[in-house]
Amino acid sequence: MRTLNVTISEIEYNKFGIKNDQLTFTDFIDIVGEELTPQNLNRCIELADKYGLSKMTMDEITDEVKAVRRNAKSSDN
Fold first, then answer.
1. Residue 28 has what DSSP assignment?
2. Which residues, including other chains, have CB under 8 Å from residue 47's CB and lie 6 or more apart?
3. Global pTM?
């Protein structure tokens, strides 16, 4: 097994609610993911609004997905 040292500020340490100076990599990824997931979701929402995708109905989205799948299948042949 390998050891990876990561240095973070006291503010980040407290912000992420880290309670232990030694974490497994999985625990580290979970902690970072909890911070990044909402940020990524907000960015997706901003982009959907910007490009008009947020106004699509579920039926329109379903039709788009079906069209992409059809095109992917036809390009495989």
1. H
2. 53
3. 0.56
